[in-house]
């Protein structure tokens, strides 16, 4: 039985805690009387995901079972969240592929011919063939990817988009379908409709809602889509097991480290330190996440979101009544937009900031006017294939400031080269950096100051952060920022916990 | 007294565009207000004699003083007192036309100051100008029927490598001056030119020039190679004539071809002058002005300047010459005053010599000079490119041979370094190192040149007597003496060097005299602004190593091995590996041949398959090898409203994915038949000069000026392209191009790759039957 979340009060006897630093590992002694909030331990995964998936689609939370909704001759579309649904690629077999196979079995039994898969990627990049093969498994790949009955949603392709009123344009195949089975993973957002509203709509619609943390706007668009085309949602929840086995120490509680963990830490650290930057980023992508399904639910979008949300809370929530003055995080070693790629400074900042202050309005561990210390050296490193617009955003847009962000975003949205790469290559959409930057807005206003430890000074300043050369300096600066002589300090490890405090 | 004597007189001047000539014309126009000056200048193709005078003499800052004094009346004054006729000292009787002769006929004085003063003049040129020049002037005077007094400017050093006193005597009367038949020397000089021209066209020579041109330019294409080859040949002829001149001069006891031809020129003039009145003025080493028109005025780089700057820059730590030796320097205004005094008062019917030098009356000893110069630089250091002051070393007085030996050793080492580097396949920063090597070599060569040439002067132990000049000076009344002061006694060498000469030399040399690092950001921004200026119309890009850190070979390996299992891959690599050196060599010689050979390997590839594969290759491989700076620059050009264009020898099917970035693509095109590539190209690939031609055609068709095109390329084979356009930019240049770009002041940019890039171009295995999709 996994243990629930745990708040470690740091005293002199507490060993230094682990930080991820730009793909490397480091430890840092936290000041006494600070706290480390560990999330609950990984929940026990489902033993037979196939059986659970089959049961879920036949016994939905609300409405008719899937088999009752399927009719011969109907147009059916299976929409699946792409890689950017999780921080890291999931290990094979991917729960999405497994659940989809169960859905397809039911579809085959109903004798439906007109079936297509849409990878709902929103503004994210196209998945490569090998990534598709890993996600969907051999059987689906053979019958869908090669034919090709599998399409990756394209938010810029006028021919595959259709207007459903209210200036909402969505994927034409989805709009034309008699039924859409939407497969989602870890729906952690406050609004149940975020995925639907962002991942299968066109660029304009997506930009309208991703630039706001107003969940009612998202709800409105989501329900409009749900009204236009019936959606049967299948939601899979995952545990938070990013690491296990020899690398399990990376997410275990530092005060419980045994000799074996310490040895493993030293080996890992040594290897990572000795590896050149370029190779290390690649190296970190090799072990996939150890996350496994903890539950499958099906039914209407709202109902599945609620049911899945309960499981998510069980996995991530730590009941902690306090909000703190100073939060310390290492930048997570992964980001949904850096899978098989590089964690560029913008993505690193985005991950850190949205972990501490979620962009969708969920509560934060940090008090308003608090300070954030990111223990991560930002280095200017980008993936030329996946992140071309990030390079230009970082070089041309950020230094100028946020005054004409909207006009610049418009220019990026209309940029033919970005569009070309987004549509035919493996690049994120030209406007994605703007969306991510906007998502950090809430954190930047919530917090009074953000300090980065180490890394390139220019990178920190460009993102509007302050830079400290040592951890001790950063604490000193945080004290100034919060204007509290003895600020309360909380460290959030990776994977991070979530809190319900404000609600 | 002088002004009165010359009032109303017409004075012709040759060599007016030179350092001494400019000062002379200015002085005459300013201090002898009632005279008329006629400049005898060589007309050029572009400018008439008077236009040349206005551009090259009147515009010089020498005239600032007169312009200030006269104000609005300056132009009228010049109009009234200055005229020009066409004449060339290297033509018989100056090649005067009837008008010229008519003007010359009315002249009262002719001052001949035209000379090739370089100690490195080729023999033939020195003979034509320095040896025959004075005689030709005299001929012209005689033929025009003029009774003008010819004042010929010569040099003290006609005395040769003499130790001890050198008197103001005609060369014909000087016991130590060698008796040489000047006519024979002229014939020999002309024959030397013909022989050298002949020799340079020998088979082996021409082959060697061609080889060297290729080594310098690589596969830059025929027109450029030929141009360079011919230039090398001409340089060879020149060098040989320079060497011959020096050898002949030395053999007769003169330090260099200048003194030798000047001495024979005096002899020739004396022999052929007939009844033309002649006087000689012999200055020593002329340097910047002491007083007139302004202290420190100097024109062009004179002989001692490079040495003085070399000391300040820390390049020269030593120079041959004994501490007790005397360097005979004389300010230009003293020389001008002497010439004018001789013109006014001299009696040409009994030719006499007036020397003007400082060595006997106010000697500047080497020891003193060195102390003053090093002392000045210690007090006012120059700064290096990092804004750090340059420390001047303790001076040494070595023997002559040692310095030369050290320098030749240094040059040999740098030479080897540069050759090795040129052969290595390096780019970017290392190749800029090659540029630095070359710069150091040039500096060392220069230093070697100085030592060779000037050591004759620093080591000269001749003492030039100026008794007759002083006698002339003393005969002047006090007012005239003040006005035309040519007594060297009033030169205070410390004041002259510290306050006048060195500051003037440093200002002319454009060296840094302020500390602090330059802000490079401004430079980059300015450069980008210039390239992206709306004035430009088209931006042309090369592909390999300019936009992509990759080459056709890597692309081929990627494509060829995509559908291969490991064993086959190894087999293919082993099969192709022995071909690599040959291909590499071919690439250096002729890129077109290289590409043709190479594209034959594509024979038999199915079109559809290759198209699908290249699409994947672009996304999975080439994009990672792109320079993001390059892509950003293309887009910036588009934003600036420029057309963008790709010129590459890479085949169409590979560059296809880049099409959205470019308005036009000129590339190699593979022929195909029945859905299979034949391995032939449809037309010659656009490489070397073909690129320049293609671009010119394109510009003509679209009514675009070549000056308004920006071109980006990386290698010397792109030289014709870069030369053709108005804004060439070298991107991560290979050493040869880096050297060329550096010499020509082209923009050089370093573009960096981004992110983690696969080390070797082996793709993930994909089954050959696969259809494209997703």
Word description of this protein:
Chain A is an alpha/beta fold and 503 residues long. Chain A has helices spanning 49-58, 66-69, 95-109, 129-145, 172-176, 194-199, 203-210, 215-228, 259-274, 277-285, 301-316, 345-356, 388-397, 405-413, 416-424, 432-439, 441-446, 457-462, 471-482, and strands at residues 6-9, 17-21, 24-28, 35-38, 75-81, 114-120, 150-152, 161-163, 169-171, 179-185, 231-238, 293-299, 324-329, 366-374, 449-453, 466-468, 489-492. In chain A, strands 1-4-17-13-14-15-16 form a 7-stranded mixed beta sheet, sandwiched between helices. A 6-stranded mixed beta sheet of chain A has the order 7-6-5-10-11-12, with helices on both faces. In chain A, strands 2-3 form a two-stranded antiparallel sheet. In chain A, helix 3 runs parallel beside helix 4 and helix 12 runs parallel beside helix 16. The longest helix of chain A is centred in the N-terminal third of the chain and has 17 residues, at 129-145. The two termini of chain A are 28 Å apart. The mean pLDDT of chain A is 89. The N and C termini of chain B lie far apart (101 Å). By secondary structure, chain B is α/β, with parallel strands linked by helices. The A-B interface holds A 126-130, 132, 145-148, 150-152, 277-279, 281-282, 341-342, 381-385, 388, 391-392, 395, 415-417, 420-421, 424-426 and B 615, 618-620, 623-624, 626, 628, 631-632, 635, 657, 660-661, 753-757, 764, 766, 770-771, 773-774.
Key descriptive features of the protein:
heterodimer; A: 503 residues; alpha/beta; seven-stranded mixed beta sheet; six-stranded mixed beta sheet; 19 helices; B: 774 residues; seven-stranded parallel beta sheet; six-stranded parallel beta sheet; 31 helices
């Amino acid at each position: 039985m996994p243990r629930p979340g745990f708040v470690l009060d740091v005293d002199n006897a507490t060993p230094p805690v682990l930080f991820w630093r730009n793909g490397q590992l480091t430890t840092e002694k936290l000041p006494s009387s600070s706290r480390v909030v560990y999330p609950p331990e990984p929940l026990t995964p489902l033993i037979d995901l196939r059986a659970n998936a089959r049961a879920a689609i036949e016994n939905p939370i609300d409405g008719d079972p899937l088999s009752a909704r399927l009719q011969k001759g109907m147009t059916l579309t299976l929409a699946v969240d792409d890689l950017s649904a999780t921080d890291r690629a999931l290990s094979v077999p991917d729960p999405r592929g497994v659940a989809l196979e169960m859905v397809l079995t039911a579809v085959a039994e109903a004798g439906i011919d007109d079936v297509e898969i849409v990878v709902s990627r929103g503004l994210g990049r196209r998945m490569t063939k090998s990534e598709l093969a890993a996600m969907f498994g051999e059987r689906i790949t053979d019958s869908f990817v090669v034919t090709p009955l599998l399409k990756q949603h394209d938010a810029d392709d006028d021919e595959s988009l259709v207007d459903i009123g209210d200036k909402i344009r969505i994927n034409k195949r989805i709009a034309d379908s008699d039924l859409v089975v939407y497969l989602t993973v870890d729906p952690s957002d406050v609004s149940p409709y975020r995925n639907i509203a962002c991942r299968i709509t066109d660029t304009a619609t997506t930009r309208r809602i991703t630039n706001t943390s107003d969940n009612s706007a998202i709800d409105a668009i989501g329900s409009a889509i749900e009204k236009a085309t019936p959606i049967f949602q299948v939601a899979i929840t995952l545990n938070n097991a990013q690491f296990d086995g020899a690398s399990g120490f990376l997410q275990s509680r530092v005060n419980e480290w045994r000799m074996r963990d310490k040895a493993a830490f030293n080996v890992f650290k040594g290897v990572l330190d000795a590896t050149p930057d370029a190779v290390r980023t690649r190296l970190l992508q090799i072990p996939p996440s150890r996350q496994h399904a903890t539950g499958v639910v099906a039914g209407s979008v709202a109902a599945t979101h609620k049911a899945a949300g309960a499981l998510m809370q069980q996995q991530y929530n730590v009941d902690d009544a306090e909000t703190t003055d100073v939060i310390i995080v290492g930048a997570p070693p992964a980001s949904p937009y850096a899978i098989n790629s590089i964690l560029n400074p913008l993505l690193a900042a985005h991950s850190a900031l949205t972990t501490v202050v979620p962009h969708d309005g969920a509560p934060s561990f940090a008090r308003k006017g608090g300070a954030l210390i990111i223990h991560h050296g930002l280095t200017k490193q980008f993936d030329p294939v996946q992140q071309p617009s990030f390079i230009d955003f970082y070089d041309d847009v950020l230094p100028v400031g946020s005054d004409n962000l909207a006009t610049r975003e418009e220019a990026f949205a209309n940029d033919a080269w970005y569009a070309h790469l987004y549509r035919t290559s493996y690049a994120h959409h030209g406007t994605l950096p703007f969306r991510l930057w906007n998502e950090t807005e809430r954190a930047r206003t919530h917090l009074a100051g953000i300090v980065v430890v180490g890394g390139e000074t220019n990178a920190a300043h460009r993102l509007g952060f302050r830079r400290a050369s040592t951890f001790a300096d950063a604490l000193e600066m945080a004290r100034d920022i919060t204007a509290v002589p003895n600020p309360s300090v909380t460290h959030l490890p990776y994977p991070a916990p979530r809190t319900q405090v404000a609600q | 007294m002088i002004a009165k004597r010359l009032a109303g007189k017409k004075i012709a001047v040759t060599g007016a565009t030179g350092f001494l000539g400019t000062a002379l014309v200015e002085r005459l126009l300013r201090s002898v207000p009632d005279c008329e000056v006629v400049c005898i200048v060589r007309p050029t193709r572009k400018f008439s004699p008077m236009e040349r005078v206005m551009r090259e003499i009147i515009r010089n800052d020498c005239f600032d003083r007169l312009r200030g004094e006269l104000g609005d009346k300056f132009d009228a004054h010049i109009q009234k007192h200055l005229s020009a006729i066409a004449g060339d000292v290297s033509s018989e009787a100056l090649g005067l036309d009837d008008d010229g002769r008519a003007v010359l006929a009315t002249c009262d004085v002719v001052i001949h100051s035209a000379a090739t003063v370089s100690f490195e003049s080729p023999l033939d040129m020195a003979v034509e100008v320095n040896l025959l020049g004075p005689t030709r002037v005299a001929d012209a005077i005689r033929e025009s029927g003029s009774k003008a007094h010819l004042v010929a400017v010569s040099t003290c050093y006609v005395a040769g490598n003499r130790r001890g006193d050198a008197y103001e005597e005609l060369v014909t009367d000087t016991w130590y001056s060698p008796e040489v038949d000047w006519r024979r020397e002229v014939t020999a000089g002309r024959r030397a030119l013909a022989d050298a021209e002949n020799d340079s066209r020998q088979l082996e020579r021409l082959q060697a020039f061609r080889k060297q041109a290729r080594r310098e330019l690589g596969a830059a294409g025929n027109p450029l190679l030929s141009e360079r080859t011919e230039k090398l040949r001409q340089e060879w002829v020149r060098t040989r004539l320079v060497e011959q001149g020096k050898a002949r001069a030395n053999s007769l006891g003169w330090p260099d071809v200048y003194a030798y031809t000047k001495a024979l020129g005096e002899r020739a003039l004396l022999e052929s002058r007939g009844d033309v009145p002649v006087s000689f003025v012999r200055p020593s080493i002329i340097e910047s002005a002491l007083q007139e028109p302004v202290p420190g005025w100097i024109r062009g780089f004179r002989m001692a300047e490079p040495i003085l700057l070399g000391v300040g820059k820390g390049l020269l730590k030593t120079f041959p010459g004994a501490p007790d030796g005397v360097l005979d320097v004389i300010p230009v205004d003293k020389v001008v005053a002497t010439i004018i005094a001789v013109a006014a008062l001299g009696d040409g019917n009994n030719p006499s010599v007036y020397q003007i030098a400082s060595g006997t009356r106010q000697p500047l000893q080497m020891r003193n000079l060195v102390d003053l110069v090093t002392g000045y630089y210690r007090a006012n250091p120059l700064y290096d490119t990092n804004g750090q002051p340059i420390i001047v070393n303790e001076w040494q007085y070595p023997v002559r041979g040692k310095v030369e030996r050290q320098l030749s050793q240094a040059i040999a080492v740098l030479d080897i370094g540069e050759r090795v580097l040129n052969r290595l396949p390096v780019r970017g920063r290392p190749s800029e190192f090659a540029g630095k090597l070359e710069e150091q070599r040039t500096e060392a060569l220069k230093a070697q040149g100085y030592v060779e040439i000037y050591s004759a002067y620093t080591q000269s132990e001749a003492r030039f007597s100026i008794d007759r000049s002083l006698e002339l000076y003393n005969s002047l009344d006090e007012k005239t003496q003040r006005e035309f002061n040519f007594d060297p006694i009033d030169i205070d060498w410390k004041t002259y060097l510290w306050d006048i000469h060195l500051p003037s030399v440093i200002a002319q040399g454009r060296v840094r005299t302020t500390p602090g690092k330059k802000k490079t950001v401004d430079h980059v921004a300015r450069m980008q602004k210039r390239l992206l200026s709306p004035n430009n119309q088209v931006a042309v890009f090369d592909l390999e190593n300019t936009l992509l850190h990759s080459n056709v070979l890597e692309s081929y390996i990627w494509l060829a091995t995509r559908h291969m299992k490991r064993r086959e891959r190894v087999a293919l690599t082993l099969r192709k590996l022995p071909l690599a050196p040959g291909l590499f060599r071919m690439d250096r010689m002729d890129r077109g041949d290289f590409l043709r050979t190479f594209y034959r390997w594509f024979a038999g590839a199915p079109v559809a398959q290759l198209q699908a594969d290249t699409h994947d290759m672009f996304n999975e491989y080439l994009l990672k090898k792109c320079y993001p700076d390059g892509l950003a620059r293309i887009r910036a050009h588009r934003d600036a409203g420029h057309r963008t264009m790709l010129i590459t020898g890479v085949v169409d099917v590979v560059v296809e994915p880049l099409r959205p970035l470019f308005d036009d693509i000129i590339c190699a095109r593979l022929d195909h038949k029945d859905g299979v590539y034949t391995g032939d190209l449809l037309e010659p690939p656009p490489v070397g000069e073909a690129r320049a031609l293609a671009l010119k055609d394109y510009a003509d068709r679209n009514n675009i000026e070549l000056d308004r095109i920006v071109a980006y390329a990386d290698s010397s084979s792109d030289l014709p392209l870069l030369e053709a356009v108005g804004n060439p930019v070298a991107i991560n240049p290979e050493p040869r191009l880096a050297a060329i770009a550096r010499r020509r002041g082209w923009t050089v940019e370093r573009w960096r790759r981004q992110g983690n890039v696969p080390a070797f171009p082996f793709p993930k295995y994909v089954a050959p039957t696969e259809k494209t999709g997703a």
